[in-house]
Write a structure and sequence with these properties.
Layout (H helix, E strand, L loop, with lengths): L14 H19 L6 H8 L3 H8 L2 H26 L4 H19 L2 H9 L3 H22 L7 H19 L5 H18 L3
Helix pairs in contact: 1-2, 2-3, 4-5, 4-6, 4-7, 5-8, 5-9, 7-8, 8-9
């Protein structure tokens, strides 16, 4: 009697672990094929699960894009909070933390985050989600910088625009990480210094 080994039973992932797996596969899909290729069906295929599993987590493509942005934002928030807590309470240190952590978070995520951010502008619901997370980030920046001068909403929006553009340029290789960080640092310092006048 020959003994044939049966395949090991597949282990069922917890809902949280399955979500993490799907997000990781989705990021890889965007990295390899671009945001246009990101569909729930394609994600199911690459993740080796059925479509209902993916639909249960995201419902729609917009839900998937929102989840990817939330995933990115959670990592960005963690890096930012840790860096602020470890920094000295000086303008130069706080401005550097904002500049360095923003650029580093985008570079850590890679070239796929600009595509996800652009796709968020494709619907009013996703644009509102993006604005909500931006407002939270801008409030944290205001809190970090307000001891050093008056921080206007217009200045914060200008800083965010510069942060996005410089980070995307660094992610695409147009400029270096250091150039992006230094230029963003200069933008932040100028914004705060204008508030001192």
């Amino acid at each position: 009697m020959s003994s044939t080994a049966s395949p090991a039973p597949r282990r069922r992932l917890s809902r949280e672990d399955r979500l993490r797996q799907l997000l990781d596969v989705a990021w890889q899909l965007v990295r390899d094929e671009g945001t246009e290729a990101l569909t729930l069906g394609r994600l199911a295929e690459l993740a080796g699960v059925t479509k209902p599993v993916v639909y249960d987590h995201f419902v729609t493509r917009a839900g998937l894009l929102a989840a990817l942005y939330e995933d990115f934002d959670a990592r960005q928030d963690q890096v930012f909070a840790s860096a602020i807590a470890a920094s000295n309470a000086t303008l130069d240190d706080r401005a550097w933390v904002i500049a360095a952590s923003y650029v580093d978070c985008v570079l850590l995520q890679g070239r796929e985050i600009p595509g996800v951010i652009a796709a968020l502008s494709s619907s009013p619901e996703l644009e509102a989600l993006k604005r909500q997370y931006e407002a939270i980030f801008l409030d944290k920046c205001r809190d970090a910088l307000s001891p050093f001068g008056r921080i206007s909403q217009a200045g914060l929006r200008g800083m965010l625009g510069a942060a996005e553009a410089l980070s995307q340029a660094a992610a695409s290789g147009e400029i270096s990480r250091e150039e992006a960080q230094q230029e963003l640092l200069a933008t932040i310092l100028a914004m705060v210094n204008r508030g001192r006048d």
